[in-house]
Amino acid sequence: MTQATMPQTSRTPDLRIAAIQQACSSDKQTSLATTERLVRFAASDGAELVVLQELHATLYFCQTEDVDIFELAEPIPGPTSDRLGALAAELGIVLVGSIFERRMNGVYHNTAVVFERDGSIAGTYRKMHIPDDPGFYEKFYFTPGDAVRNDGRSGFTPIDTSVGRLGVLVCWDQWYPEAARLMALAGAEVLIYPTAIGWDVTDDPAERERQLEAWVTVQRGHAVANNLPVVAPNRIGTEPDPTGQGDGILFWGNSFICGPQGEFLARADDHSESVLSATLDRARSEAIRRIWPHFRDRRIDAFGDLVRRVRD
């Protein structure tokens, strides 16, 4: 597949979107078959834009450090991107997928891929913030996306598609207001966060609630601060630590779509396979920015220290 240019199509006042929440399998083909089934359902319900969760083709393999897991990585274009692109073309939708990318020998990325209605690749986003926490040893597998890409543009650059300009980020990026702001400043019309996040299975109920509400709240905050809708699909199911040394992760689902004031438009539970759908009013962000002019009032002359690690 070739890199796509933004098709010149007329856009309707409303945009029907869907987010897919699913459990994943150790067999890539099984996971992708589930994905295809759910995407077809979303398209039959009128979705023009469908967003998949992070690393949806496999189990979340970052619970352990194992060099053999690099065999799961693929180039882009490659088998999984070809399959997802063909699905997008068949259904006539814009599709956001997620691939463990082999960029070159020894350089791998956690990459979101956006497919146009004709199946071509509209663009990619390589995850910029990479965690390294118990159960989430992503720094072993993923190189951060380039701060400045080969085309000279920022790593935080929205992807132009026939349904709008998509501010695609990935999971751990969702905790950083700077990433959302940079996407908004570049004209993103919606913020998208493919996600794989859950609880340690030994966490008590109170701790689970605190973590879940923090995750939901910070992303709704990005919607409010930038006057943009947010789409956040997350996986479900318990996935054991492959080494047997850890307790495993219970992925908490709760995928959601919210509007530009943080209002919930759709939200899933913590255990069900789901196709979340919502209709976005394309004019709403502009209307809100006229009465809550966050961008007008930013004191950019006083923000220089944000590029420092610490203000010692």
Describe the structure.
- This protein is α+β, with helices and mostly antiparallel strands and 312 residues long.
- It has one domain: Nitrilase/N-carbamoyl-D-aminoacid amidohydrolase, CATH 3.60.110.10.
- The protein contains five helices and 17 strands.
- The protein has a six-stranded mixed beta sheet with strand order 5-4-3-2-1-17. Strands 8-9-10-12-15-16 form a six-stranded mixed beta sheet, covered by helices on one side. A three-stranded antiparallel beta sheet has the order 11-14-13.
- Helix 3 runs parallel beside helix 4 (205-226).
- The termini are far apart.
- The model is unreliable at 1-9 (pLDDT under 50).
Task: Write out key terms for the chains shown.
single chain; 312 residues; alpha+beta; Nitrilase/N-carbamoyl-D-aminoacid amidohydrolase; 6-stranded mixed sheet; 5 helices; globular; disordered N terminus
The total number of structural domains is 1
The side-by-side strand order for the widest beta sheet comes to: 5-4-3-2-1-17
Helical content stands at: 10-25%
Q: Count of helical segments? A: 5
- CATH superfamily label: Carbon-nitrogen hydrolase
What summary fits the major beta sheet?
6 strands, mixed
Do you know the CATH topology?
Nitrilase/N-carbamoyl-D-aminoacid amidohydrolase
Which H/E pattern describes the elements? Answer: EHEHEEEEEEEHEEHEEEEEEH
Low-confidence stretches: 1-9
Computed Rg: 19 Å
Shape: globular
Oligomer state of the chains in this structure: single chain
**What CATH architecture would you give?**
4-Layer Sandwich
- In round numbers, the mean pLDDT is 94
The CA-CA distance between the termini, in Å, is: 49 Å
| CATH class categorisation | Alpha Beta
Question: Structural class given helices, strands, pairing?
Answer: alpha+beta
